[in-house]
Structures are given as structure tokens and as C-alpha cells.
Amino acid sequence: MPIALLVGGLALAGLGAFLVTLGCHDFVLATRREERLIGGALAASGAAGLIAAYLVLHRRSGWALRGLATVSALGGLVLVSIQASFQSSPRLWLWAALVALPFLALWLGERALARAERAVGPRGVPEQSRKPEIAATVVAASATVLGSLIGLMGGAFTPLVSPSTLDVDVRLSTVGHRVDPEGREFALVDTAVTMENIGRQRLVFFGSAYIVQGYRSEIRSSSGQADWPLDDEVARDNWSGRYERPVVLEPIELGYDLVNPGDYLEPGQTLTSNWVTPVPRDEVNTVEGWVLVATGYEQRLRLGRQLLSAQDDDLSSEEGAVASWEILPTSWIAQLTRGRQSVSVQYEVTRAEETQTTGGVGPVRPIDGISISYRIGPGGPADASSSRRSPGEYSERIANFYGAGGTVGTAAVVLDQE
């Protein structure tokens, strides 16, 4: 057997075996319906490659062989489209090579067969006996093209348009009073939080934080309508500013992981939580609460092993506290095209622009809020140390692919001064 013929046949056989194995695995075990459809398309493409390898190794040629080789190339084309829709990567060249491989093998095989026929005369089966092969080619091509189009049109590997589908409702109320041993009066402020999944996809939590803060609002002279609007206090301080003027915010209680990372909400499901915070009445007369939540689509963003824990960091430091998890692949195709992915969440306290002197120590910038930032991208255990210093650059495209989004809820209550 000519070397070129053997190389071409083995190349087609290797490509076919790879696509059949990959496709059959995902067709059976992938966690999402769209990925299972794409797996079926790849398996059909791989089967066409195996049939083409059989024809080459048995010295067959013709349109049936060319059609089967073309169908086997569609498997690599599907991987190219999946890779390009997610993120540009050197892997793109590998999938492009899989597209060219069947045509190279076909060229080697037909060239070797042509040389052999010139030397010993025509050989092979009559053209009319190849009708079953041509029919098999048409069926395999249809299955490959339709399967890949259904999967891609279903959004298996494409970014989402509006990933944020969580509603966060925060309500504050005074539920009682306390007096400490020194005679100071405290108002007991209850913070009630309701989170509802208002979308049609299951949502997974990977970050959450809250802060309860107070301030003493001072009465000021009433302003006439000619002076409206009054500065930017509504947007900046969540306060109308018509009769009162908010001053420096004082943090009373703050924290993170209000919801355990990895917990999820089904469509239409709600999650409620509440806690009571003692607030010194001689220091503040108004209390407000903020809740910040980061979620993603659970069918795409599944948290695996935790790489970093926010509890190992100092939240009040300049770098804040960082938590990180591996993202579990949803299929072999996803793992091949995305590589190892992780999500990092950074919690930071925000500080006022003005400095103050407290207890003879200063000047210092007082805490006036808490923030969440996150990054989803390539990474694993080896990248944990760099993730602790900074979550890295934010990519809106990758975040949208995983359905990641942030939601904020806020409320305020005026303490009873009786």
C-alpha cells in the first residue's frame, strides 16, 4: 500500500475516532440540551470520517469519498465556530487544522490512487454500486449541519443579551428598643431582604454583601421651588435634600456572603432573610441598608473547588477580600474550547472623600459603603496568588456568556425620636 494512501486513511480514521468519542460523550453526558445536540452532530461528522477512512484504505475514490471527507471537516468547523463565539484563543488554530485535515487526507489518497491506476489500470467498484455510500453521505451531512445549527441557534455557546434577572427588595423597620448598662438607648432596626428570580433560568449565587449604616440628618431652611433640583443628593446620598441635609455616613454593620456561594434559585423562587441591628439613637436619626448580589446562570456557571477564601483577607485593607472558585465544565466540548475557567470576587469597603480625625488618630477616611467586583476568565490553582492581589480585568463578553450580573437593593428608615 502506498505511504500517502496509508497516511491519508489513518488521518481520517484518527479524526473520525476523535469526533465520535467527543460527540458520543457529550450526546449522552453533557448537562445542557444544546450541548447534547452539538455532541450528536460531532458524532455524525466523526462517523463520516471513519467511513471515508475505510474507503481510502480500500482504494476507493469518487464523489462518495469526497462527500464523506467534507462532512468530517464540518466537525472541525463546528469547533471553530464555538471557539470564536466564546473567546479568541490559540486553540482556534488547532480546530482550523481539523477542518483542513480531511481535505489534505483526501488529496493524498486520491493522488496515490491515481498513480496506482496509471501503473496497473483502473480498479475499484463500478460507479453504480456506490449509491448506498452516496446516500450515507447525504444523511450524515444533513445530521451534522442541522445538529450544529440547532445547537448554536439555541445559544449553547453564545453570550446572553440580558443576564440580570434577579429582583432584590430591602425593607427596614424599627421593631424595638434596648438600653445598655451605661444607659444608652438603642433602636432595633430589622433588615428584611427578599430575592426573587424573575427570569426563566436557574440562577446561582457567587457573591453577596450588605451594609447597614446611619447618619444624623440636620434640619435646614426650606427651599423654594425655584431652587430645585437641589444638587445631586438624590443620586449621591439617596436623600431628597429639600428640608434636611445628610452628613457623614457611619457604618453600623457590614459583611459578605449573605447568601452561600453555590446556592441557587429556580425561576419564580424567592429567598428571604432578615437580621436585627442595634442602632445608637444618640448618634444617628436615620438608617439605610444596602444589599449587593452577584449571580450567574447555573446551567453555565457551576462552582467547583474553592481556590481562595475571603475570610483569609482583611476586608478593611486597600486590596479588600478576595474569593475564587473553579468553574466546572458542562461538557467535553466546553472544556476543550474554554480551558480552565474560574470566577474571582473582590469585596471592598468604600471610603468618603473627606478625611476626619477620630480619637486623636488621623486624618482618616471613614467607611461609607461596600462594593463587589468580579472577574470570570482563564485560571486555576496556579493563578490563585495573583487573583488575591486583584481579580483581574473585567470582560463583559465573558461575563455575559455565563449570565453574570449584579443587583442592588436599598431602603431607609427614620428612627422614632419619641
UniProtKB/TrEMBL annotation:
The chain crosses the membrane at residues 36-57, 64-86, 92-113, 134-157. Keywords: Membrane, Transmembrane, Transmembrane helix. This is Uncharacterized protein. It comes from Blastococcus deserti.
